[in-house]
Amino acid sequence: MKRENFSLANYIFFCAATIAVFLVCLCVGSVGISPANVFQSVLSFLTGGDIGTAPAGKIIVFVRLPRVICAALTGATLSVCGAAMQGLLKNPLADGSTLGVSSGAALGAVLAIALGGAMPFFANAGIVPTAIIFAFVSLFAIIALANKLDSGLAANTIILTGVVFSMFANSLISLIISFSGEKIKPIIFWTMGSLADANYSNALLLLIAFLTASAVIIKNAAELNACAIGEENARHVGVNVKRVKLLILIASSAAIGICVSVSGTIGFVGLIVPHITRLLTGPNHKRLLPASAFFGAYFLMLADLLARFALSPRELPVGVITSLIGALMFLSVFYRASRNK
Amino acid sequence: MRKNGRRCKRITYNEEWRKFMLNVKNLTVKRSGRDVLNDITFKASNGNWLMLAGPNGAGKTTLIGAISQSLPYLGEIEIAGKNAAFVPRKKIAGFIGVLEQTNYVNYPFSVYEIVSLGRYSYQTGFFKVLNAEDMEKIDTALNAVGMYHLKERSILTLSGGELRRAFLAQVIAQDPQIIILDEPANNLDLQYQKQIFELISKWIEDTGRLCITAVHDLNLARAFGTHALLLQGGKLFGYGKAHEILTGNNLADVYSMDVNAWFEFLNDAWRK
Fold first, then answer.
1. In a domain, A328, yes or no
2. Which DSSP string do the residues of A162-189 spell out, in sequence order?
3. Phi-psi region of A82 (alpha: psi -120 to 50; beta: other; left: phi over 0)
């Protein structure tokens, strides 16, 4: 019989692979820096030493390192939340943005870019804090609305409320874009998703979001299994379905809100990575959730590598890369899986 | 109206429970202002097989929903002497296991994973790992429904009869004091119908516990039930021993047709 849980050996293997991918992404870039130099710079940065005045060291420590960390954390968060939402709502088309919180965060970011920091209530607020505030306001607005519509929080109510809220927020974004004049370019670029502005404070924010959300989600793996099999069935075996729903919805949407605030809307990762992972591990969330987090990290690190390296020095929006590769990868994996049935 | 009762932690004990596992008092369920169930009162004891009968819309499924604490209701439902509305969800699962009318699964869970979910309410700790007792109960349940050899199969590849048996195994693994089945043989071929009813019969015999079953098929109700509860338009028409309740006269009233004559006619078809 297959082990139900992710074993220690699994964790060690996946962590080793993470480090490998991480190092590759750190060494490859539009500015050619030898791996030896990369290690030297990182090592001296970590030990508090001098990174030297050469641009290579600065690029590694202040541009590439935070960027790869942010990519890994964003990818892991998007995937683990997507996997949780697909199980919770028993819907293979769900992902972390199903509840509409990412649209709310995007609205905040677009507003901040369009007004150039001249917000009426909090002057000079940056894009990230504005987006996070919008994400949390929308999260509570959506949960309150869904709860009002249907106190049982049925999956369909949640999905519909999320779709309606997303449409509403997106139409406001379109409205802002149509009045934005010369700001239109940064807005469009932001909505396509980019990790170019990554820094250490963003990385810390993402780390907190990832650890909190994944702890809540992985703790509820058994409950997610029950919900993915059927809500009524889950209730009958003793799951407090409403409590689990609120926990997962709030944890994953808050984390997704933070991801979107930091790196824009990076589509497809939260939808595709859990599906590909499920084909490998099966639908049991005790294996699916940790594996999804790892695969999501690899996927976004490599996609971001491609985004900055493929047509360098020109940078591509990473959201476009993830959607392109994700769609093709999914087709091929799905095709092979259905042929082997 | 209480909603899956979490209002207070007070649990009242009633000594009568040693005799009656389930005690339903003045149960009323309203849906959009209409009484779907109206003032139902009955007691059921261990070792009984209670059949819920009545035409479509009589309230069989609603009664099951209320007893399993999935619906808001008025009145009181005592399980093993405790007011069920005040018992937490996870504890309820130790008392009541439910086989729903239909199970539709989206993801390729294995049969073993479906059945092991029945042990959810017994699991503790961060990772909720199955212990030796859990595994033993799961294996016993899989063997009881004759699906041990299929335990690694994806639930999506099962036939209708196998799917029902997999979920029945889940309920058996849950090891509850009361098993509630909603149309367990619905849409199943005769051999599976026979298999499932014999299986439940054996479960009651082995455990000496209570089983409540909603059935359309009055033949099955009469053949297997020790007791019967006849519903008509949300009201209790009659409750008692199966052979005293499921009689030609009662059924003629509830179904507004001569049920005896109809069964005679159907049986005659085989003698031609």
1. yes
2. HHHHHHHHHHHHHHHHHT-GGGHHHHHH
3. alpha
Do the chains contact at B100 and A229, CB–CB below 8 Å? no
Domain with A245 in it: 8-339
DSSP 8-state code for residue A238: T
pLDDT for the residue B1: 44
Query: For position A156, which CATH number holds?
Result: 1.10.3470.10
Using an 8 Å CB-CB cutoff, list chain B residues near A2: 152
* 3-class state of residue B181 by DSSP: strand
> Do the domain assignments include residue A273?
yes
Give the residue on A whose Cα is nearest the Cα of B103.
A230
Residues A222, A218: Cα–Cα separation, whole Å? 9
- DSSP letters along B29-96, please? EEETTEEEEEEEEEEE-TT-EEEEE-STTSSHHHHHHHHTT-S-BEEEEEETTEEGGGS-HHHHHHHE
Q: Domain ranges in chain B?
A: 15-255
Whether A183 contacts chain B with CB within 8 A:
no
Count of domains forming chain A:
1
Is B112 at the interface with chain A, CB within 8 A? Answer: yes
Q: What pLDDT is stored for residue A193 in this prediction?
A: 83
Total number of residues shown for chain B: 272
Which range has the worst mean pLDDT, A180-194, A215-229, A298-312? A180-194
Token pair 């999804």 in the structure block, residue: A292
> Taking CB atoms and an 8 Å limit, are B120 and A87 in contact across chains?
no
Class of domain B15-255: alpha beta
For residue B35, give every residue at least 6 positions away whose Cβ sits within 8 Å of its Cβ, in sequence order, or none: B28, B29, B234
Q: How far apart are CA A142 and CA A249, in angstroms?
A: 10
Task: Answer whether the bond into residue B55 is a cis peptide, omega within 30°.
Answer: no
In 3-state terms, what secondary structure has residue B190? helix
Determine how many CB atoms are found less than 10 A away from the CB of residue B165: 26
Q: What pLDDT does A71 receive?
A: 95
Answer whether residue A172 is part of any domain: yes
The average pLDDT across A112-132 equals 71
Chain B nearest-CA distance from A327, in A, is 20
Q: Which stretches of B110-234 are assigned E, i.e. beta strand?
A: 178-182, 210-214, 227-232
Residue A51 pLDDT exceeds 80: no
Query: What pLDDT digit, counting tens, does each position of A35-50 carry?
Result: 888 888 888 888 776 6
ipTM of the complex: 0.86
Residue A224: pLDDT band (50, 70, 90) is: very high
- pLDDT digits over A72-95, tens only? 999 999 999 999 999 999 988 888
